[in-house]
Predict the 3D structure of the following.
Amino acid sequence: MKQKILTHNLGFPRIGANRELKRAVEVYWAGRSDESSLLHTAKQLRMENWRSQATLGIDLIPSNDFSLYDQVLDMTCILGNFPERFQWEFPTVSLDQRFRLARGSKQAAACEMKKWFDTNYHYIVPEFSRDSTFCVGDLKPVQEFEEALELGIRTKPVLIGPLTYLALGKSKDNFDRFELLESMLPVYEEILSQLAAKGAEWVQFDEPILVQDLAQNIRELFLPTYQRLVKVAPGLKVLLATYFGEVRENLEIVTSLPVQAVHLDCARGAAELPAWVEALPASMSLSLGVVNGRNIWKTDFAPALDRIEFAVRKIGVERLLLAPSCSLLHVPISLRQEGKLARDLHAWLAFAEEKLDEIHTLADLAGGNGDLSALHRNEIALQSRKVSTRSRNEELRGKLAKWQKSSVERHSPFDVRKRLQGKKLGLPHLPTTTIGSFPQTPELRAVRANYKKSQINSVVYERYIEQEIATAIALQEQVGLDVLVHGEFERNDMVEYFGEQLEGFAFTGNGWVQSYGTRCVKPPIIFGDVWRPHAMTVHWTTYAQSLTKLPVKGMLTGPITMIQWSFVRDDQPRSETAMQIAFAIRDEVLELEKNGIKVIQIDEPALREGLPLRSADAPAYLDWAVRAFRACFTGVSDETQIHTHMCYSEFPDIIHAIKAMDADVISIETSRSEMELVDTFSQAGYQNEVGLGIYDVHSPIIPTVESMERLLRKAVDALPSDKIWVNPDCGLKTRRWEEVTPALQNLVQAAQQVRNSLQSA
Ligand code: GLN
Ligand code: ZN
């Protein structure tokens, strides 16, 4: 079958190989450059991206996947869907207006930000109201198409599909935003007809909501919507992209649409391939996302080729396209700059450019004109990963296998533990504490960076951190908090700090991924079995404890958060990796306990974001996640108090899992939502203790005693007062001491006043 399979890409990272976009945008925001120089950098980046994709042998290269901030925000601008509070008279959006939607201004608050499906990318949430109107606010897709065409590249513009756009937004006043569909479609039609007029052959509509549970009335909107859209420009071929999972019952929607091609995410939805080819009408092509766009591992060519060959047999080579599973936005750009990575590990990885190279190679191999040595090289790399002793620790596996079967129950039920802990800790009613981190000054960050670069030695570094700890302890005593923390001054990031000390984690030099706007993160790579070669926090925590008679709380990051914010290995289930991490954390917990630490907090701020995209899959996830969390502290004494922390306010759908986690105390974010959450906990009959956030750490405002007291009274009315703790919403590392000190003084005073009134009542 010597025919070429068409290759394409769904989206390419836009930050630039050295985060050029971040720099250019931030310099512009700071007023140190002008619009034309920012737009120039942006154009250079787009051209570089198009050219490199062309060089890598991709046939259909995306456009309009670039963004100065966020692709959903761009869609908002294209649709002219500007929230009323911005009061913009002109339909077309300026550069500054685009940024204002994302960042707010003095006159109008920014639009909200939300996680893009289950990734760590955040998008700007579209807003809808009964009065929303639409008009072409921006011709970005057309302009970028023309720009690429000038380079001789006929791109495939990418648009967020109308139904996904609506679904991701937020309605005001309980208004059904899908009623706006009709009035939105003319803008899509206008963009499509302009693209067709400029010579576009393909356009890609992203409709990832098809991998989620959809209400029947929304499901029914797909067919008429796409029937209408394809009419505008009959010559323009439409590729409908689903990604991030299986489409399940929505397959009938996908295959009913009058589009030329549909995309299946084989990284997560490969099991559906037979059903897709079965249901595919003869007029439709199939795009197979055979290379995982969410992870950084080399693709195993053998099963990928099996899938491709299966599809070729069923539908023929001319109806097949190859692509990554989703946009490559979620992986770093290139391995070229990772010379410092261990050689073996380097050989196991593929970032965006390497992934595109894989697609091209797979297309050639499947088309019968490939270089067989590429297949061979792939086999060798994968084999070396499989047999690597660096990624396997047999002793750990043996222990874990035994331990896995044992119970993760604590010795006694909560009531018994509460009594014992109460005796041991001797805390007042409504005890006060913080979530862990204290302000990180520029000087502190510089000291840490210099230590990392070996510009200062460990003695000097340790002295410095100890000094910071001593200051923090003194301050907490002075303010009158009841359970103290050491302040986390040694941590740059709550996952990286632990990853760097555990075996099985690796760190890239330049593996940046966009998180939101100009913010990028460099996720650790969990490449092998995780274990703990030495203590990680015991020194700092016991040092802090040696300075005070009050209890100091040990601070650890939980297994789910560790895997959520890393690239995880794909050769074993995430649950197994989580369990290995739990085992390592448990070693740390036991060692802290042995060293006299009576309160230990295991943070799990990412537990909720790990929820699968389908509600039917949630119980299985929550099951292993809860088990991994509990495994962190099995075997600790009843007297040792285990805390956890989660910073969000959406608990109703996971409250049963929170119960099952059985932490003695859970601290949560409640200040912005005005304690709405306490009802969830009380209605669910939550038995253990709850720490309520009464200080909004995301705001520079110092809350008054009265405002915090008011919040606390609400809590005391809803929950038994002997089960309430008082704390800020989250860690204080991004705040300044000048804010934190008075805010904590007020917090302690608010607790004291409510305490007094309870006693006199
Ligand atoms: N202990 C961490 C801190 O205080 C928790 C951070 C978080 O919840 N994201 O910074
Ligand atoms: Zn938090």
